[in-house]
Amino acid sequence: MKKYSLFWVMLVGLLVPAIGASPSMAAVFHVTNATEFKDALKTAENNGEDDTIYLAAGTYQGSFRYRPSDTEHKGLAITGEPGTISREIILDGQGSQGVLSLYDDDSTGLLVDININGITIQNGLGGDGAGLRARFLQPSANVSITNCIIRNNSGRGYGAGIVIEGFPGGNVALENNLILNNTVTERYDGRSNGGGVAILSGSVQTTIRNNIVANNSASGITAPHGGGLFIQSGTIYLIGNTIYNNEANKGGGVYFSYAITANVYNNIIYGNTATEGGDIYFETVTNRNGYNNDWTDVYGAWTNSGSNLNTDPLFVDAANNDFHVEPTSPMVDTGTAAVPDPPGLPVTDFAGNPRVFGTAPDIGALETCPVYPKDGTTGTKMILMGSGYGSKKGKVLLGNAALTVSKWTEDSIQCQLPKALSPDTYNVTIRPQAKGSTPLTIPNGFTVKTPEIDSVEPNSGSEGDEITINGYYFGTKKGKVKLGTKTCKVLSWTMVPTTGESKIRFLVPKGLSSGAQQLTVTNGVGANITNFTVTAD
Questions:
Q1: Mapped to the 3 state alphabet, what secondary structure does 165-179 carry?
Q2: CB 190, CB 220: distance < 8 Å
Q3: Residues 6+ away with beta carbon under 8 Å from 38
Q4: Can you list the positions of beta strands (E) in 41-99?
C-alpha cells in the first residue's frame, strides 16, 4: 500500500525543514531583516571564511548581492533557520529589481561550494536571472539550489527564475524546488532562453531531481528556447520532475543544448507548448537516454529509450498548482528504480515522503500515498488509496469523528472533514461495508492544523480599506477576523480544499487608534496572530 502526503502549492513541498550547509562552513550569521542580510553578504565577501547565513521567517524586500574579492574563493550557504520552510522566508524584488545575485568573475581560484536552501525568491525584474543569478568562473565550482520556491520573476535574456553560468568543472544540483510563473523575454541581442531556469555551465555535471516546473514561458521574436528549462551542460541528469504547461518557440518544457549526455528518467514532461519540440527539444546532444517518462512531443530522436508514455497524467488540481496525480493515473508505479547512479534515485519525493511506495517509483515529482493530503482543517478534501475496500460505501473516521464520503471504490475513497476538530494528529480508520471485511487503521494518518497566516497585503491601512490575508488552513467555513479589539467585516473567505491555500478579504473597522494592532484569524480549530498597522485617514 502507498502512503499519501500533503503537497503545498505555493506549496511545497517544501514542507522539508530548512537545512544548513556543509560542515566546513566557519562563519555563521543569523539575520532577521533585509539590512542585516545585506550586511552579512557584504562581510562574507571579504572575511576569508566559509560562510553560512541563516534567515529568520519573514519578508526581505530589495535586491541582494554577493561579489567576493578576487582572493576570497570561499563557500557560501544561504538557508532558513532550522525549523522553517521555504514559504516562510521570502526574498521579494517587488517587481522593480533583480532579487539575488551571486558573482565571482575571477578565474584563478579554487573549488567553491554555493548552497541556497529553503527560501522563496519572487517578484524579481531585470535581465539574466531576475530571481537568482549565480555566476562563478573558477576552474571548478559546486552549486546547489534545494527546497526553494522561485516564482513570479520577469527577466530578459536567460533564466527569469534562475540562471547559473560559468563552471568549467564541478557540479550543479537543483532538487525539490517549485519553479512557477516566471517569464523571460528578449534582451538586446535577441536571446530569450529559459523561462524558469537557464543553466550555462560548460562541461559541468547537472542534476535536476524532484522539481516542479510549471507555467513558465520564454517569449520574443527571435526563437525563444526552453519555456521551463534551458540546459547547456556536459552531462545532464533529469530525474523525477514534473514539467507542465510551459511555453516557448522551441522546447516548451525543456531545451537541451550542447551536451555530451542527457539522461532523462521518470519525468512528467507534459502539456507544454512550442512550435517545435512542445515538451523536449534536443540541439547538439550526443547521447540522449530517455526511460519511463510521460511526454507528447520531442524534437530529435532518442539514442536509447524505453517504457515512455504519451498520456494525460491526471493531476489532482493543476489549475491550483496541485501536481499530485489521481489514484487511477498511469503515472502510479510506472517509473523505474534503475536510474543512473550517481546521482541515483532520490530517497524522498518533492514533498519529502519516501520516493517508492508500491512496486516501482511513480513518474513525476510526487509519489501517491494512502492519505492525501495528510494535513488540513475543516472542509479539507482527502483521497485514501489502497485495496480491498469493496464496492459499497462504508465509513471513514478521523479519530472518532466521521468524515463525509463522496466516492467509494475498491481501491480509493474520496472524503471530506465536515467539522472542526482540535488541532492534533489523528489515526484514520476505514471501515468497509463488505461482509467479513476488517477495518483498516492508518496510524497518525492526518493532522488537523490551525490557521497559518503567510502575508497581509497591504500590511497597513485606515478605516474602510480593503485588506487581503493570504495563508493556509483557514477552513471552508467562515470564521472571524479581529483587528485589535474590533471584529472586522469579512468580504470573502476561501480555501482550496485539497491544498489548504487560503485567502480572506476584509475591511479595516472604525474606532481603532493609529499604530500597531494585532490581526487575528480564528476558525473552529484555532487562531493565528500577526501584526498590522492602523494609519490615520
A1: EECCCEEEEEECCEE
A2: yes
A3: 62, 64
A4: 51-55, 58-61, 64-66, 76-80, 89-92
Q: How many CB atoms lie within 10 A of CB 490?
A: 16
**Cα(214)–Cα(236) distance, rounded to whole angstroms?**
20
Whether the CB-CB separation of 255 and 277 falls below 8 Å is answered with yes
Nearest to 374 by CA among 348, 353, 346: 353
240 vs 78: CA distance, rounded Å: 25
CB neighbours of 501 closer than 8 A, spacing ≥ 6? 8, 9, 10, 11, 320, 472, 495
Q: How many other CB atoms sit within 10 Å of the CB of residue 303?
A: 14
Q: Which residues contact 497 (CB under 8 A, 6 or more apart)?
A: 379, 380, 381, 416, 476
Max CA pair span of the chain: 76
- C-alpha 191/C-alpha 230 separation (Å) is 12
Task: Please name every residue paired with 304 in a beta bridge, in sequence order, or none if there are none.
Answer: 289
Give the residue carrying C-alpha cell 520564454.
218
The phi and psi torsions of 172 (rounded to 5 degrees) equal -125, 135
| Rounded Cα distance, 185 and 217, in Å | 8
The pLDDT tens digits along the chain (537 residues) read: 333 333 333 343 333 334 333 444 489 999 999 999 999 999 999 998 999 999 999 999 999 999 988 777 788 999 999 999 999 999 999 999 999 999 876 665 566 789 999 999 999 999 999 999 998 876 667 899 999 999 999 999 999 999 998 766 678 999 999 999 999 999 988 899 999 999 998 768 899 999 999 999 999 988 899 999 999 988 999 999 999 999 999 999 999 999 999 999 999 999 999 999 999 999 999 999 999 999 999 999 999 999 999 999 999 889 989 899 988 899 999 999 999 999 999 999 998 888 988 789 999 999 988 888 889 999 999 999 877 888 899 999 999 999 999 999 988 899 999 999 999 999 999 999 877 788 888 889 999 999 999 999 999 999 999 999 999 999 999 999 999 999 999 999 999 998 999 999 999 999 999 999 999 999 999 999 999 999 987
Tell me the pTM: 0.83
Residue 282's DSSP bridge partners are 256
In contact, 333 and 359? CB cutoff 8 Å:
yes
